Automatic annotation (TrEMBL):
It comes from Microbispora rosea. It is found in: Cell membrane. This is Major Facilitator Superfamily protein. The keyword Transmembrane helix applies. The chain crosses the membrane at residues 7-27, 39-60, 67-88, 94-119, 131-153, 159-182.
Length: 188
């Protein structure tokens, strides 16, 4: 945590997880109440989302060889656009399903990007980097779910997804700024 590269990675990871879980925690009510999908279709979409995440994680390795921070920032930008797209076009069932599938695919790059960033920031202490990453993201997950709860009780489901999208976009901006100030260990 004393390394600037790790602190930037923790901050970007926390912000992106807050945005992710502000939305993900409330995806079922969004799809059922806003998009008007049946529970069976929602369940199928969860499987598609999960499969997309697996594919994204497989692709992530080759992207990280080109640059972890750039891959994280680019993927977070896409996730932000997908969340904002869901907020604005989520009433169209086929489009909501497509956006959700793409969200799973691209989140499959963002999620491991947080760990790889910290591992590359502290390559000689991988256990500590991994432990700090897990703790950081669990706290951020709880904060995101809490933010979503506040928004759900005081605004609309669309506002939840817009807020989540702009929060994820903030993580992408933070990563882009970080890339100007830090250098990570090179991946082979």
């Amino acid at each position: 945590m004393t390394r600037r590269a790790a602190r930037f990675g923790m901050a970007a990871g926390a912000v992106v997880f807050i945005g992710q879980f502000t939305a993900w925690t409330y995806i079922t009510p969004f799809l059922m109440d806003h998009t008007h999908l049946s529970s069976g279709v929602v369940s199928l979409l969860y499987v598609v989302y999960g499969c997309g995440g697996i594919v994204g994680s497989l692709v992530a390795g080759s992207l990280f060889k080109r640059g972890v921070i750039g891959s994280f920032a680019g993927s977070a930008t896409v996730v932000a656009a997908l969340l904002i797209g869901l907020a604005n076009a989520g009433t169209i069932p086929w489009l909501a399903g497509l956006l959700l599938a793409l969200w799973g695919l691209v989140w499959g790059v963002v999620n491991p990007g947080t760990l790889v960033w910290l591992l590359d920031a502290a390559p000689e202490t991988p256990e500590a980097a991994s432990a700090v990453n897990v703790t950081n993201l669990q706290v951020a997950l709880a904060a995101g779910s809490g933010l979503g709860a506040i928004l759900v009780s005081s605004t609309t489901l669309q506002a939840v997804f817009l807020t989540a999208g702009f929060t994820v976009l903030a993580a992408a901006v933070l990563a882009t700024v970080a890339a100007r100030f830090i250098t990570l260990a090179r991946r082979e």
